[in-house]
Design a protein that fits this description.
Length: 182
Amino acid sequence: MARRPQEVADLIGLADPGCEECVIVDLNLVIDCPEAPGCPPGLHRHQSDDLSWIQVTTEEALREPSIRASIRGKHLFFSDSLAVLLTIAHRELTQHAFHVAKMPPRKPPNRDLVLCLYSPDDARSAELSDRTKTVYRGELGLPVRYARWKSDEETREGRYSERFLRTLTPGQRERFTRKPTG
């Protein structure tokens, strides 16, 4: 039986039915992640217009433009499971005072999914590394790796880890490492 997009969104909890901004997800996400956790109260999940990212945002970040304006980079987590990354994003936003996170909806070939947890600076890196070891991997047994905080400047300048770059085709590598012009 084919499902309508809203039914699918309700099934996996990716769209907040009370939020006029929430975008209905494509049906492929259900195939890729039928175990995706529902969206907790106080958070909004949106899919980008080009369907390449799922963004999770607190209500406070939607109301307060200064929160987004203060962001200068992101903490990077890696896993082969979208459900794991959504779980971590939900916990960090609801329990640990982060406000914005995003991840791709589908696992790319030959590499893990990435969770970007946005923040103004790297001041909370040790805290996140410890929580990943003790809570996410330790207590909860989640298959996840915390890498580091990466500045927006590094991203704009095309600075990526060799570990990531080795997974790309030559054309993809060129696009990711191309320096901005102008």
